[in-house]
Amino acid sequence: MFRDIGGLVLLFWRTLQALPLAFRHRRKVLEQFYEVGLGSLLMVCILSFFIGGVLALEIGPVMVERGLANYLGGIVGLGLCRELAPVLMAVLIAGRIGSAMAAEIGSMAVYQEIDALRTMNINPIHYLVLPRIIAIAVGLPMLLIFADLVGWMGGALVCSTNQQVAVGMQSFLSNLRSTVEIQDVFHGLIKTFVFALIIGTVSCHQGLATIGGPRGIGRTVTKAVVNSIVLILILDYFLTHLLVQIEK
Amino acid sequence: MSAPTNHESVRVEVRGLRKSFADHEVLRGVSFTVERGEIFVLMGPSGSGKSVLLKHIIGLEEPDAGELLLEGQGIHTEGLRDRYRMAMVFQSGALLNSLTVGENVGLYLREHRLRPEPDIRRIIAEKLDIVGLKGTEEKIPAELSGGMKKRVALARALVIEPQLILYDEPTSELDPLIAITIGQEILALRERTHATSIVVTHDRDLAFGIADRIAMIADGEILEIGRPEDLRRSQHPLVRKFLTADFKPKP
After folding, report:
1. pLDDT (tens digit, 0 to 9) for every residue of chain A, 248 residues total?
2. Do residue B60 and residue A111 have CB atoms under 8 angstroms apart?
3. Contacts of B16 (CB under 8 A, 6+ apart)
4. For residue B227, which of B243, B210, B214 has the smallest C-alpha distance?
């Protein structure tokens, strides 16, 4: 994976250079945006609802036991929007969208469609990579907002209905409102934006480098998903460290 | 990108081209020149390096050694592709499977914004008509046979009005009548546009039917270059074997 870092950086730089062409490729951006956004929305909502619920279920009884039940909304709210939702949504999108991107571009490489683009003097980075990276970089942070809201609702519902926790919904939400600030949501959004760039770049890079037949495409998809997740988890630590320093 | 307006054909020079994949040397110092407006056929058995050579000429591969010149300039020279229009018809067609036939054929014009939309639609219909696929604009490549895909690929190349057009096995997988139509279209395109054409094939009928000159290639080396009648008289044993082989077992 680390062998590919140079290629990844180069591809990302070339995509950045192509950004002024984004408006020209708006139709392709919208098609990709539909896939990333609407195509993933239901999955994101289901996943985040249960993550919020599990978080409340795990932390709730311990906090109630120590007389800290009033802080439960804040803890669940912060945990979700700053860490769990960004990372888990990125992992979900790496599996759902990153794999699809790598497979589609990989199959185009194997069946000479990318060669055909080059012979027509059409740059594959402008035609294939740019729309995908823009779509995922815009779409994933938007999905995160839904994930935060639905996850908080999941946490609130579990707290109010579970006998061991028994914190009212009003009390949970009121503590969440007083604890979670807009900068906490931005903290998650910044992380998600970086993760989206990683998923888009890694998946497109793997796709373009595909060789061989169907087995090559299979290897590409596996590498795209695994490399994206590994990079997301490693960068998550350093990004958190940096953002916490900035917030101080 | 602005539309290149030069309609003159181009001269191609290949000098001492060498290429290896891993330890296998595919091209071993290939040299030849294709004159402006010429139909030059590269003929040889499978695995002789013909398609790799074609990919070098269009700039899809970088040679290990040697030069490829288009009008005296290296094929990878910055901006060369903006000055000269080149097209390649791939053996498999290489159509974009996510696009319709019409979108495939009009891709070059739309991506480079060379014509207004009504003109592009008219040109697409016209080129599809030429290759005998009138009215197939809305079909997707998965609905087409191998031969039809190849004809769509030819229509896509015709749209570019190329000054240099490369054909990789243009008649493989086609029935004899369609193969003749494709051969006639290669000749007609040269008449219309004076484009320089390089055709890779192992179809002897096609080669002798359309070529101004033929180069016989085997094991990454050019064995013989000449007019079709010169090649028929060649005394090179491999060339003779390739040209005279038939289905009847030798006594």
Report:
1. 667 888 999 999 999 999 999 898 899 999 999 988 888 899 999 999 999 999 999 998 888 888 888 888 999 999 999 999 999 999 999 999 999 999 999 999 999 999 999 999 999 999 999 999 999 999 999 999 999 999 999 999 998 898 887 888 888 899 999 999 999 999 999 999 999 999 999 999 999 999 888 899 999 999 999 999 999 999 999 999 999 998 87
2. no
3. B29, B30, B31, B65, B66, B67
4. B214
CA distance B150 to B104: 12
What gap in Å lies between CA A204 and CA A18, rounded to an integer?
Answer: 15
> Given B81, B82, B92, which is nearest A111 (Cβ)?
B92
**Mutation for A interface: B78, B111, B161, most A CBs within 10 A:** B111
Q: CA-CA distance, B93 to A86, in Å (whole number)?
A: 43
CA distance A123 to chain B (A): 10
Q: Are B183 and B167 in contact (CB under 8 A)?
A: no
C-alpha to C-alpha distances, B111 to A25, A27, A114, nearest whole angstrom: 9, 12, 14
Q: Could you give the CA distance from residue B223 to residue B240 in angstroms, rounded to a whole number?
A: 11
A34 contact B CB<8A:
no
**Closest CA relative to residue A112, chosen from B149, B16, B138:** B149
* Nearest residue to B153 (alpha-carbon basis) of B89, B60, B87: B89
- Residue owning tokens 């094939």: B201
Dump the DSSP string for B56-94: HHHTSS--SEEEEEETTEETT-TTHHHHS-EEEE-TT--
Burial A69-81 (b: 16+ CB within 10 A, else e): bebbbbbbbbbbb
Q: Give the dihedral sign, CA A212/A213/A217/A219.
A: negative
Neighbours of A137 (CB within 10 A): 19
Question: Measured between CA atoms, how close is B156 to chain A, in angstroms?
Answer: 9
- Which residue on chain B is closest to A119 by alpha carbon? B87
